[in-house]
Specification:
Number of helices of chain A: 10
Helix content of chain A: 25-40%
CATH superfamily of chain A: Aldolase class I
Number of helices of chain B: 4
Oligomer: heterodimer
Mean pLDDT of chain A: 96
Helix content of chain B: 10-25%
Low-confidence stretches of chain B: none
Order of helices and strands of chain A: EEEHEEEHEHEHHEHEEEEEHEHEHH
Radius of gyration of chain B: 17 Å
Number of strands of chain A: 16
Low-confidence stretches of chain A: none
Largest sheet of chain B: 7 strands, mixed
Strand content of chain B: 35-45%
Structural class of chain A: alpha/beta
């Protein structure tokens, strides 16, 4: 039985990648289990300068999921390179995925340029879809034109595989996907969170300090699956399926829709061992589905 | 942190909207009073964090107030039910800082972790005093539990139905203690810090995603930059917080 796949030319022992924003820089999870069982993990979204993030509350419960409005809290690229990557080298011995966000084309470009020199970084995931910051993130992912501009700018400074992380909060995700492919993206990851909100009935006010937040968890899995299925028909570059994946069966379903690999996010927050559990359940789920080699089922539903 | 399966041994109301839940299970991850556990409530997505009231080998107690769907559902849990918990979370109080006469200040649902803290301080030969604030007499709990430890207990209620009328600060003298430990609503913690003459530690609460440091959902901005209530906290030094 073979679980290995190749994502933009870099081998993954299995398609399970811990999603950015749910796994920090890996350290807290590496204390719980040997995270070398992962395909990889995507580091906390990194900006040029340190960011303190949004006011709390940043989290709200939802049916089969949660809203978050963390707002890209991170130590900034200099500290990620000088402190986090060396720490990661001590407990994770595979290529790691860097996740980049920004508030201007220049910021995206500079952070990607700095990451391009880092041998540990296997892929750069460019987040143009964070719904929780103003003037950045989603502003670049909301139109095909802006998404194409970011892709073109970061392509110029990076030889690493570039994966553009797409937002579901658009009219036509296939159009955005095609624009990224045309400007040189090596892959696409989708979906980021769906913009949502909750109110406190007694206070008659939003629960989240940021008013709105991004919905994730099993609630969004069918939406993510549909978008992966659509985008698979629109582009030829590999896709990373993200959105509510919580079991080995979800992984197979997402791959059948067209994903080469998957990211597991919210599940890590509820069960810190979620990625390990999903990976160890893969062989049995494959056997039940009559799958001998995982890469054979990519896009198998089309 | 340890992920455990706990078995509910007791789940009983001890005051208005306030329940005491006792579990049997592995308590070995708990190291300091003021740490918390994160409990999975079936049918809800995120776990619910609760400060631990007491633990001993094989036995853990929490006291929870009904504030929403999660805690409401927990009131229906029967003896013998198994629950999935992450244990030994957060830093907890530091008893070494207390000096000889620490003051323990609790507001409502913030009182429970002070019981274990009080016992730990007494064990170390300290002479703690306890001050508790509640809305009304029907919401008060743990007077007997603290009195049976031989400590002085001062109570205030907002409506004056038990103890002094007013907030917890109306029931205690901040100038007589060598150190204070406080747990309760943010407004109470701010007022306690402002009125204090000594150094102290406060336990914060915040809506959490994971409870173990992964999601950055519960960040508080401190003098040393952003910290996670669930990981670097929930207990912070008075001087760390920007109020």
């Amino acid at each position: 039985m073979n679980t290995a796949v190749s994502l933009c030319g870099v081998k993954l022992d299995n398609p399970v990648i811990a999603a950015s924003g749910t796994f920090g820089f890996g350290e807290d999870f590496a204390r719980l289990y040997d995270i070398n069982c992962l395909g990889s993990f995507s580091m906390k979204g990194t900006t040029l300068l340190p960011r303190e993030g949004n006011p709390t509350p940043r989290i709200a419960e939802c049916p089969e999921g949660l809203l978050n409005a963390v707002g890209l809290q991170n130590p900034g690229i200099d500290k990620v390179i000088s402190e986090e990557l060396p720490k990661i080298a001590g407990f994770f011995h595979k290529p790691v995925m860097a996740n980049v966000s920004g508030f201007s084309l220049e910021e995206y470009t500079e952070v990607c340029r700095l990451l391009d020199d880092q041998p540990q970084v296997g892929w750069i995931e460019v987040n143009i879809s964070c719904p929780n910051v103003h003037g950045g993130g989603l502003a670049f992912g909301a139109s095909a034109k802006a998404a194409g501009q970011v892709t073109r700018a970061v392509r110029r400074v990076s030889a690493k595989p570039l994966i553009i992380k797409l937002s579901p909060n658009v009219t036509d995700i296939s159009e955005v996907a095609r624009a990224c492919e045309a400007e040189g993206a090596d892959g696409l990851s989708l979906i980021n969170t769906l913009l949502g909100m909750r109110l406190d009935i007694r206070a008659r006010r939003p629960i989240l300090g940021n008013t709105t937040g991004g919905l994730s968890g099993p609630a969004v899995f069918p939406v993510a699956l549909r978008m992966v299925y659509q985008v698979y028909q629109a582009v030829r570059i590999p896709l990373v399926g993200i959105g509510g994946i919580s079991s080995a069966e979800d992984v197979l379903e997402m791959m059948l829709a067209g994903a080469t690999a998957v990211e597991v996010g919210s599940a890590n927050l509820v069960n810190p061992f979620a990625c390990r559990d999903i990976i160890s359940a893969l062989p049995e789920a494959m056997a039940e589905g009559g799958v001998k080699d995982l890469k054979d089922i990519i896009g198998g539903a089309h | 942190m340890k992920r455990c399966v706990y078995v509910i041994e007791e789940n009983e109301a001890i005051a208005r909207n306030t329940y005491r839940m006792v579990f049997s299970g592995d308590a070995s991850a708990f190291k300091a009073p003021g740490q918390f556990l994160n409990l999975q409530v079936s049918g809800l997505y995120l776990r619910r964090p609760f400060s631990v009231c007491e633990w001993e080998e094989g036995r853990v107690t929490i006291v929870y107030k009904v504030v929403g769907a999660g805690t409401q559902k927990m009131t229906t849990f029967k003896r013998g039910r198994e629950v999935d918990v992450l244990t030994g979370l957060g830093n907890g109080f530091d008893t070494a800082l207390s000096g000889p006469r620490p003051l323990l200040i609790g507001g409502g649902a913030g009182v429970p972790p002070l019981l274990m803290l009080c016992k730990a301080l007494i064990k170390e030969g300290k002479q703690p005093t306890v001050a508790m604030g509640f809305g009304t007499a029907g919401e008060a709990f743990f007077q007997e539990a603290f009195l049976s430890l031989g400590v002085k207990v001062n109570i205030a209620t907002l409506d004056g139905s038990l103890g002094a009328k007013g907030v917890v600060l109306d029931a205690c003298r901040m100038d007589a203690c060598t150190f204070f430990y406080a747990c309760g609503p943010v407004a109470m913690l701010k007022a306690v810090c402002a009125a204090s003459c000594s150094d102290g530690q406060v336990s914060l609460e915040e809506r959490m995603g994971c409870g173990f440091g992964a999601c950055m959902g519960c960040t508080v901005i401190t003098q040393e930059g952003p910290k996670r209530v669930c990981k670097e906290g929930p207990v912070f030094g008075k001087g760390e917080l920007i109020w």
